[in-house]
Amino acid sequence: MTQTVEALFDQGIERYKAGEEPAELIPVFKDICDRAPKSSAAWACLAWLYLLSDKPAPAVKAAQKAVKLNPQDPQGRVNLAVAMLDAGKPGVRQHVEVASQVMGVAEDLRTEVMQNIDDGLTRKPDWKSLARVKEWLA
After folding, report:
1. What phi and psi values does residue 20 have, to the nearest 5 degrees?
2. Please, are residues 26 and 53 in contact by the beta-carbon 8 Å criterion?
3. Terminal-to-terminal C-alpha distance of the chain
4. Number of domains in the chain
């Protein structure tokens, strides 16, 4: 029996939280994105996994899709800003500003995004672009 996209997504998140290597989870989230192309959360997760795997070019594309699907999601904006910094692309400021605005009115989103940033810096301590974005959001 085929698993639902939601079940695959939840399992992928659990595997990530359990410490599985991001590169091993990329195919899982690519499959989820193929099966649910309008899921901004799936695209944001895929972008994050690419970033953790030092693949900024596909991270930019995945993050752009996440932001296009849900322009008010601060995590998608943060992922796009970090991917653009990692890829050396301009236009980062607007994404950080939108993320900051949304986080300013939604404390639960602020907490979640900052926890994700801290997780990223734990997994990849020398991640300069993520540290810069964290500073800008603080």
Report:
1. -60, 145
2. yes
3. 46
4. 1
Cα 53 to Cα 28, 94, 123: the distances in Å are: 14, 25, 10
Q: What is the pLDDT of residues 95-120, one digit of tens each?
A: 999 999 999 999 999 999 999 999 99
Residues 6+ apart with CB under 8 A from 77: 67, 95, 96, 98, 99, 102
Whole-angstrom distance, CA of residue 54 vs CA of residue 117: 16
CATH value at residue 92: 1.25.40.10
Structure tokens belonging to residue 95:
């994404």
Contacts 24+ apart (CB under 8 A), 119-123: 120/48, 120/51, 120/52, 123/22, 123/52
The model's pTM: 0.94
The residue segments making up the domain with residue 33 are 5-137
Structural tokens at position 82: 């970090």
